């Protein structure tokens, strides 16, 4: 069917524009987003979490982890709730990592651990802090804040480019720090009843599940990423060296 020269001309113009957009802005560009959400966002996140960490440590009542919570009449509990609210909001900021990985076309970084961790933590943290926003429930945010200061500083440095990434050799130690965090949380929460702390069954069980579940996930990630993959790479390297060094008659 002949659409006429004017319509064909318009169709070709639109098609040419679409092709030019795809070639110049998709195929030829670096698969990344602008630098500020990758570098600036992480620095902001570290700053917010560090402020939480510093404030709760400076608080003179932070040692009293067995204190009965009364958010309506106790100023200390209210300050706990205020601090943990900001901690809770940072979990949604961290959820943006998934969006940034998609925009950067880093499908390899969208691991099962990453998806499960960032999609479930906000819900679990909300359940904990909604019922008991202070006392023993502040230990996990405290430990998690310190770990994320280290982790997001690593992300901020690695986002500066490949010329910096090649010098970063401590990624596995960041994962180990996260695993140690969950061990400490497990030990701390499990010991609360022995110190006479009034811990609700929901809070106690959620903390243990949260720490134990993610400890298993991080152990599995560490095993596959740093042990199995490293061993396979070593065998592949030996195999390549054997082929390259083989003498031919």
From TrEMBL:
GO biological process, alphabetically ordered: fatty acid elongation, monounsaturated fatty acid; fatty acid elongation, polyunsaturated fatty acid; fatty acid elongation, saturated fatty acid; sphingolipid biosynthetic process; very long-chain fatty acid biosynthetic process
Molecular-function annotations in GO: fatty acid elongase activity
Enzyme Commission code(s) on record: 2.3.1.199
One Pfam family per UniProt: ELO
Location relative to the cell: Membrane
Membrane topology: Multi-pass membrane protein
Catalytic activity line of the entry: a very-long-chain acyl-CoA + malonyl-CoA + H(+) = a very-long-chain 3-oxoacyl-CoA + CO2 + CoA
Keywords: Fatty acid biosynthesis, Fatty acid metabolism, Lipid biosynthesis, Lipid metabolism, Membrane, Transferase, Transmembrane, Transmembrane helix
Main location: membrane
Main EC class the enzyme belongs to: transferase
TM annotation in the entry: 113-130, 142-161, 173-191, 203-223
Record's GO cellular component terms: endoplasmic reticulum membrane
Signal peptide: none
PANTHER family: ELONGATION OF VERY LONG CHAIN FATTY ACIDS PROTEIN, FATTY ACID ACYL TRANSFERASE-RELATED
UniProt-recorded name of the protein: Elongation of very long chain fatty acids protein
């Amino acid at each position: 069917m002949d659409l006429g020269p004017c319509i064909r001309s318009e169709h070709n113009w639109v098609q040419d524009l679409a092709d030019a957009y795809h070639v110049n802005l998709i195929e030829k560009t670096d698969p990344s987003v602008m630098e500020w959400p990758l570098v600036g966002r992480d620095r902001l996140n570290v700053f917010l979490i560090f402020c939480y960490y510093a404030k709760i440590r400076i608080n003179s009542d932070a040692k009293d982890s067995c204190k009965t919570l009364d958010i309506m009449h106790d100023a200390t509990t209210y300050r706990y709730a205020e601090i943990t609210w900001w901690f809770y909001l940072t979990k949604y900021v961290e959820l943006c990592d998934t969006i940034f990985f998609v925009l950067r076309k880093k499908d390899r970084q969208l691991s099962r651990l990453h998806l499960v961790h960032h999609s479930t933590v906000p819900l679990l943290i909300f359940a904990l802090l909604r019922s008991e926003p202070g006392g023993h429930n502040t230990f996990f945010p405290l430990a998690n804040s310190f770990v994320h200061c280290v982790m997001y500083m690593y992300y901020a440095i690695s986002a500066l480019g490949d010329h910096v990434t090649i010098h970063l050799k401590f990624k596995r130690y960041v994962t180990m720090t996260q695993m140690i965090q969950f061990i400490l949380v497990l030990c701390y929460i499990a010991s609360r009843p022995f110190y006479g702390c009034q811990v609700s069954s929901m809070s106690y069980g959620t903390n243990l599940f949260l720490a134990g579940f993610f400890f298993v996930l991080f152990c599995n990630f560490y095993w596959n990423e740093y042990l199995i993959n490293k061993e396979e790479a070593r065998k592949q390297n030996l195999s390549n060296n054997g082929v390259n060094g083989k003498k031919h008659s």
